[in-house]
Amino acid sequence: MATVLEEEPTNSTMWSLYNATEDLGSLQAEYKLLNDARLHSREPLACVWLTILVAGLFGNVAFLYVRARVSYMKTVTNCYLMNLGLADIMFLAINVPLETCDLFYDVASRFQTLYCVLSSGVTHLSNYTSMLTLALITMERYFAICKPFQAERLSSKSRARRVIAIAWAVALAFAVIFTISCFSKGGLGMNAITLILQTLPFIVSMSTITVLNVLIVGQLSNRNHAAMSALESSARAERLQVIRLLIVTELLFFICVFPYYLVDFIFGAQVLSNTCVEDTQKEFCMSLTQLYALMVSMKTSMYVNAAINPLIYNVMSSRYRQAFLFAFKCRKQPISESVMYASTQL
């Protein structure tokens, strides 16, 4: 059973920053409201999060199985998507049970540092791995479509595996750096700077993805369709299907994850400028209850993002739908290999 909070909650770096600026005595009423909000929302939240967990694990594991089971699914693009699925599985399998336990047993208050390291560390590792993977997929598509001669040399499964390993190493380095704040005591300004800096990889990755997608769409639009053979037209249609699928995947990632980094940036900037620090009664400053509601919404949004990708593949790719049916013995034959004109297909 959750009890009235006797010490400030530390669900994230933002909690410690927020509470480090307040007199605990002046916040007793706010803590009471916060505790009431947690009590009334924990059962519905637990149901929603656990449903997302089951659906996300099933979908991502199914995609990994289909990719391993069906030969024509073993493309370079799917190698990257498989890595994206692994990052999503890790995020869901660790964070959802941890956050659900916190709803009922106040894990964040009882094991502050351990909770912060696990929750923040896994979130950063998964997010940075996902955004780097999406950037790598888009870059691979860019070379395949805009620079096909270079793509023949650069696009291979062995190279993709090496690049993926580097992406995990870089993501882990960022995660370790930005999780150090879990061990800091006091250091309000440094923690605020950390909140701002951890948004930079997201900005760089999403900017790179946007520019490359614009170049890819422009290249496909400028080609002479009338001069294409039937086989080339079919390959172009396959490429467009994959590009649309990737753009939707990247757009949903941006929509679901962007609020997390935006709030971190705004909150860090407010702390550095003393906004909402000396006077939390300003109209645009959030109460603890409002901050809690915002954090719960952001977490739920990221859980949805980690679970939804297999559904996107199924809805938008006829190749994946047919591969799924074949892998789970719902049809006797996979689709014809005659359509395997290029490695740009999903």
Automatic annotation (TrEMBL):
Its main location: membrane. It comes from the Eukaryota. Gene3D superfamilies: Rhodopsin 7-helix transmembrane proteins (1.20.1070.10). The keyword Membrane applies. It is found in: Membrane. It is a multi-pass membrane protein. PROSITE patterns: G_PROTEIN_RECEP_F1_1, G_PROTEIN_RECEP_F1_2. Keywords: G-protein coupled receptor, Membrane, Receptor, Transducer, Transmembrane, Transmembrane helix. The keyword Transmembrane applies. InterPro entries: GPCR_Rhodpsn (IPR000276), GPCR_Rhodpsn_7TM (IPR017452). Pfam families: 7tm_1. The chain crosses the membrane at residues 48-66, 78-98, 118-139, 160-180, 200-221, 242-263, 291-312. Residues 59-313 form the G-protein coupled receptors family 1 profile domain. Belongs to the G-protein coupled receptor 1 family. This is Neuromedin-U receptor 2-like. It comes from Saccoglossus kowalevskii (Acorn worm). The gene is LOC100366371.
